[in-house]
Automatic annotation (TrEMBL), chains A, B:
It is an enzyme of class 2 (transferase). GO terms for biological process: threonine biosynthetic process. Gene3D superfamilies: 3.90.1200.10, Phosphorylase Kinase, domain 1 (3.30.200.20). Keywords: Amino-acid biosynthesis, ATP-binding, Kinase, Nucleotide-binding, Threonine biosynthesis, Transferase. Pathway: Amino-acid biosynthesis; L-threonine biosynthesis; L-threonine from L-aspartate: step 4/5. It catalyses: L-homoserine + ATP = O-phospho-L-homoserine + ADP + H(+). This is Homoserine kinase. It holds the Pfam family APH. It comes from the Bacteria.
Amino acid sequence: MAVYTHVSAEALAEFLTRFDVGELVSAKGIAEGVENSNYLVETTQDRFILTLYEKRVAADDLPYFMALLDHLAAKGLPVPPAIKDREGREIHELEGRPACLIKFLPGVSLSHPNVAQARAAGEALGAMHQAVADFPLDRPNSMGFESWKPLLERCGESLDGIAPGLYRDLDFALGDLAETWDRQGLARCAIHADLFPDNVLMLGDAITGVIDFYFACTDIRLYDLAVAHAAWSFDTTGEHYDEAVGNALIEGYSQSFPLSEVEHSAFHDLAVGACLRFTLSRAWDWLNTPADALVTRKDPLAFWRRVKVYDPDLATLLPTLA
Amino acid sequence: MAVYTHVSAEALAEFLTRFDVGELVSAKGIAEGVENSNYLVETTQDRFILTLYEKRVAADDLPYFMALLDHLAAKGLPVPPAIKDREGREIHELEGRPACLIKFLPGVSLSHPNVAQARAAGEALGAMHQAVADFPLDRPNSMGFESWKPLLERCGESLDGIAPGLYRDLDFALGDLAETWDRQGLARCAIHADLFPDNVLMLGDAITGVIDFYFACTDIRLYDLAVAHAAWSFDTTGEHYDEAVGNALIEGYSQSFPLSEVEHSAFHDLAVGACLRFTLSRAWDWLNTPADALVTRKDPLAFWRRVKVYDPDLATLLPTLA
């Protein structure tokens, strides 16, 4: 959430000459994105986001992300594709980093989406899943189920510094989930995998953009809805569930993409999985970010607490959720 | 250089209703400013910078800064005044911080300004000094000459960790400067006091904005030119002086505001003062910023080295500049 790589105005003006986008008028480093450096760039023709990819986004994955955005944009979905230069290239290099010039989308990310906004987000997610039916590329989910146990072990007993007994409880919940995770033969497709309200731009109740596809991957389709549900339907502490918002998200999704019976019955397990995924990644960041760093550490327990809503029976077995 | 205070889209939309500026369309936290939080805000009518003032800018000083910007803007200078709300207020509170909605100016900050651009900056600075002849308010320079010795003592012997002997050399240079600093009876006025290329927006060779007035104060007028000269005429290491750029800055200034004989002869002492001011403040930041913090620490010695150009005789007496 900062600008890690400085791009001088002179270098940026030179970079823009590769494209047919007019001349540089303004550039502001913006505090957005998952450990990328982003600039809001204005030219004599239009506005753009310039993204320089730092450590978390592997250069090798960019062709997948950009192909997915092109695919969705071509089907009319409100996603920001990369701008092609005069030779048709989307992925460039700038200041030693992979870099893309990306379409700017209006709209704001809401902190407290209402029912109508959640319904719109669900619809948009369902529409994306419809649209990727013929998307040909695959990318493993580097933050998928198989990664959770190794991440738990890398965090290790330090987790008990966040909440006494957390390591044991996470290990128990993971073991519980392992028994059911793969058995249902749920449909898989390209998923966003990180559809937080942060990553949806809105004007009023209308969606103007779905952004930040840098966790996109091939995984269980319903898991994408489960992540969104866990992300949209709770307050920031994870203590308070807004059932109306949660239901609206599922209803909106179902309008675009009806859920099967097996999906309905699997939903809560997948939501517990989503909770574990973000509890673990936030815990890892928490344990590895100095308390005084400028990056805001997000409370890992805020996602852990959501398990009480998705699997109350499991939660009673977990002292950290008592 | 980060967003310290988060403003939700909902809170921002509500805040904007105080003004006659249209409705919120987009908001991006931007990585700019001296420890303030800044957002680039777009409405259905225009674009603005929303600034929330964090610790370094005292709320008590905001009326001075805003009055100065209004004064300069009223005289047609390209500075960004605060937008008045429907009741005529410029200074607000948002998320518990003093906050202003500020006019957005196009243009980019250059990293390597050329001769024509330096001349334009000098002209603009001279024009500002002409324009403040009838500006009635005063503000002491909290980073002025009187503050340097106390700041040196607060840094103390830790300075020798930056360069062996630095404490002694800075103390010597300060003592040398103290003999001449006040004797000339140089004219005083409201000055910008921080006119780095960062704080000047340009399109081509034309200035579109002078920004970041949060060090503005009443001090020796020529000192403002000395700060700008030291900031514009060297590479980032402080080793390489670009005489053509330096001369252009002074020539441009002189076109707006001719220098007196006494000012000509005092210029190099004031430039040494400017070097000391930024060496000391950067040294303080250096000693008090963890090496792994997201804030980039600026090399204090880069300003110290400039003394070799402004006072070669003094520099020969200083082992750290040998």
